[in-house]
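Batch manifest, entry 17 of 40.
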Amino acid sequence: MVFKMPQSYLSIEQAKEAGREGTVVDLRGWVYRTRGSNKLVFLVLRDSTGIIQCVGSKDDLGEEVFKRSKELFIESSVTLSGTVHKDERAPGGFELHLNRIEAVKAAEPFPITKDQSEEFLREKRHLWLRSRKMNAILKVRSTVTGAIHEFFRGRGYYEFTPPIFTPNACEGGSTLFEVKYYDDVIYLTQSWQLYAEAAIFSLERIYDVSPTFRAEKSKTSRHLSEFWMAEMEAAWMGYREAAKVAMDEVRFITERVLERNRADLELLEADPSRLERALSKEWPMITYTEALGLLRDRGGLEVEWGKDLRTIEEEKLMEHFDTPVVIIQYPKEVMAFYKPVEPDAEAPGPVARCFDMLAPEGYGEIVGGSERDTDMDSIKKALEKQGEKVENYDWYLDLRRYGSVPHSGYGLGVERLISWLCKLDNIKDAIPFPRTMTRTFP
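Output type: structure tokens
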């Protein structure tokens, strides 16, 4: 059979929007559910826009077509025609009474059934992408990445694309992925930052959304080895202003998701009202030292000043907030080499001009950023202290030799933000094909 692609087919969403009682429509998609009796076949059709219940009788379809329709397995691809009828009991409030159904490709028995483990579903991720849950998450993800571009372009930022292969560490050598590169060894990028710092002397304000790689030996529900970061870098900008941009960006993205994906959030049982409440309030900005005070006074958790906040401290702190919170001025001692000291801070020890944004509901850090050190001597000392070869960063130090200016930037973890927006239990569901310590297939 030669399958032709006529132009008259509607999506299920279009059919529901245009579907007055008695309207005849042509649809195409995949069998989502099916059951039958001696006289009727009940079939739920799905496409990228949703599902609709279809009912066909032996009298309307003819005995041979009726028989074949009852034998179709889940995920068989079909085209069909029918009359729209309102039915409050049906998914979406509409039902299609069939007068034609034709199999494009009859499926074999589908390997995914109810109540299968998350690990099995990741093993069959190429098929699980068809699920309504993954369909909804992927739609939210598309809105998120589109909103990032919309936000920065609307503010006059230029998109700048960095290399994926890099000769240097940016976030510490222990999490670098080595790659054989001809006769040499090179690394997968941990961040675009060093290259972005070069570009701001040309374009001043830039952003990008690109893959990032961290060889973190973690099997938690919050870590991926390959993930996407939305990063920005701007000349003439301090870290507090960069933190404000980050808050504006996350607000903007959240607004777009509420506008375009409310039904997807509801399907995922990620109550949209929690996001609306977050948008209705001011988002706090507190210092690391103040955060430790909150942990002590409200949470009964004593954390020694100078230690980085771990997952347990972040979760305990965020029990007191229902909005994202920005924490500034972490101890310099635990920060990356490029973060300068904040000389005016009221703190027990040296702190950096840096910030993190934490999401509520236990989702942890979603943004990390800082001002960038412009002093060559302090950068060299920090690199030496971290065991790095200063000569490997000579090109980066050139940026300080020739007209350096104050500048700042940050990275937003796309999957971590999606996890919060969609209220996911595991970050692995926020990306189409997760890559972790134990998962490289499919």
